């Protein structure tokens, strides 16, 4: 009688259900840990990128000479020193690049994200710009008006002067008419006006 060895598989049998359960549990645990970590250290909240409110000094040291030794602190060495990052940048273009850059902004506590303007803000800005234009126009109108007034005054002045001259001429003319032309010639003021006619 042949002894029949029971057929045994060398392959390990996985209990599919069992392992699915374990996997699900592990996933759950991982997610729980992640949530806990989030609670413990909230993500660093950085300010949104803002426009600079100061003028960058790029040329105050232009054309000046300074002596630099091995012990000269970085802030007094040649080039552009950034006191936020404590580094020296060699030229103005790179300095501007640096202070506009991610690393510098991060050191300032700003992210590179910019604020998204709301419709309200955009409307308000439009309103402000419109007012500015109107203000300018008003200023212009005022200037124009003043100029016209001055011109008018000038014209009036000239006119009054002419009138005075005219009156004077008339008065003199009247005077001359009283003098007999022959008499006037004799008296030596023949050229007094009437002869000019
Ligand atoms: Zn910097």
Automatic annotation (TrEMBL):
Supply the SUPFAM superfamilies for this chain: beta-beta-alpha zinc fingers
Which Gene3D superfamilies has this protein been placed in? Answer: Classic Zinc Finger
Q: What is its main location?
A: nucleus
The record, for Pfam families, names: zf-C2H2_jaz (PF12171)
Any one annotated GO CC term: spliceosomal complex
Positions of the U1-type domain: 77-111
Region named Disordered: 151-179
This protein's name: U1-type domain-containing protein
Name its species: Potamilus streckersoni
Its taxonomic placement starts with: Eukaryota, Metazoa, Spiralia, Lophotrochozoa, Mollusca
């Amino acid at each position: 009688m042949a002894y029949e060895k029971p057929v045994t598989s060398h392959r390990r049998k996985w209990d599919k259900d069992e392992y699915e359960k374990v996997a699900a549990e592990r996933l759950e645990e991982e997610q729980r840990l992640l949530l806990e970590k989030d609670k413990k250290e909230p993500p660093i909240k950085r300010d949104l990128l803002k426009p600079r409110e100061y003028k960058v000094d790029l040329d105050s040291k232009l054309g000046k000479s300074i002596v630099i030794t091995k012990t000269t602190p970085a802030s007094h060495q040649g080039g552009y020193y950034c006191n936020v990052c404590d580094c020296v940048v060699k030229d103005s273009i790179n300095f501007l690049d640096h202070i506009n850059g991610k690393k510098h902004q991060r050191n300032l506590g700003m992210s590179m994200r910019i604020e998204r303007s709301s419709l309200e803000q955009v409307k308000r800005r439009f309103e402000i710009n419109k007012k500015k234009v109107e203000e300018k126009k008003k200023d212009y109108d005022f200037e124009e008006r003043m100029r016209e007034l001055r011109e008018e005054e000038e014209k009036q002045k000239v006119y009054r002067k002419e009138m005075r001259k005219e009156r004077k001429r008339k008065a003199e003319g009247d005077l001359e008419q009283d003098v007999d032309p022959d008499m006037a010639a004799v008296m030596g003021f023949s050229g007094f006006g009437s002869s000019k006619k």
